[in-house]
Structure formats: C-alpha cells, structure tokens
Specification:
This protein is mainly beta. It has helices at residues 19-29, 81-86, and strands at 2-3, 6-7, 9-10, 14-16, 33-43, 46-53, 62-72, 90-95, 98-106, 112-121, 139-140, 146-148, 152-153. The longest helix has 11 residues, at 19-29.
C-alpha cells in the first residue's frame, strides 16, 4: 500500500506460534496477529511449512506448502517486482477509525529461487477472498532482523 506517497505493508493477518508475540503485536501495533500451531522442517534444500490457527474465536485458516530452495538471486533492482515486494520500510494499520504508520528497518532480503512442490491454503478464503487462479510467485529468504519504531497517527 501507499499513503501520502510512502510505500508500506498492510497485513491482512499474520499467524505466529508464540502467544506473547501475538499479544504484543495486537496491543502495541494493532496488527491482526493470530495464534497458530506452526511446523517448519528443512532437510537440506527441501522445506515443509504448516500453519493452523488455534484460537477458538479466530477465523479458521490453514496453510501448508513444500518447496525446494534454489540459487541466490541478484539484489533487487529498483523498479523490479522483487524490489516492490521486499523494499518496504513502513507498516500500516488501523485502530478506532485511525490509520497508523510504523517505520521499520531491515537489511535487503537475501532472496533465493524456490520451486513450489505442493500448496494447500485457506488463507484467502478466511478473509472472504478467492484464491488467485494464477500460479504463485515463490522466493525464499533466510530470516532478516527487523527493527520497528512506535506507531504514528496518520489520519
């Protein structure tokens, strides 16, 4: 999303397996985090990821995928789709009819090619959206540390 020309990320939801992190994201950043049971297994370049929401009052949603990690991709060139998707240094959220922006800092994502082996998801449907018909764009990256500043009221 963009607000006043500043690009950022708007989270529809974010599943996490650590209840204190879910609580903090909701309480301090008004982010739509959901408690989930998450399993991640990696055997060399083969990866399996599973997430299932665990809160009783949460909209049911599951995500399962398997992929193979490929070669490193070059740094994202400005104007490329990869740059558009990864070079975001703000998050946006809403609370009590107000829009907030939180500044974030992170290094460039070390993107790698990835080949999707299987995918089953009800994440789109949990938001009342249809799953896109097109094949998903798949990349892989190791964890990147992210620093976040307090939210600022925008509207």
């Amino acid at each position: 999303v963009h607000l006043d020309g500043v690009p950022g990320v708007w989270f529809l939801s974010c599943d996490a397996a650590h209840a204190p992190a879910v609580w903090a994201a909701r309480a301090f950043y008004h982010l739509p985090y959901q408690n989930a049971q998450i399993n991640f297994r990696q055997d060399g370049t083969n990866v399996r990821f599973e997430s299932r929401r665990t809160e009783r009052d949460a909209t049911r949603a599951e995500f399962r995928a398997e992929w193979t990690i490929g070669d490193a991709l070059p740094d994202c060139a400005p104007g490329s789709l990869a740059h558009f998707l990864t070079e975001r240094y703000c998050l946006y959220t809403a609370h009590r009819d107000r829009i907030y922006r939180g500044r974030v800092a992170h290094s460039h994502w070390p993107l790698r090619r990835a080949e999707l082996k299987s995918l089953a998801s009800t994440m789109f449907e949990s938001h009342g959206l249809q799953t896109p018909a097109a094949a998903p764009l798949v990349h892989y990256a190791e964890a990147v540390a992210v620093d976040i500043w307090p939210l600022e009221n925008q509207r």
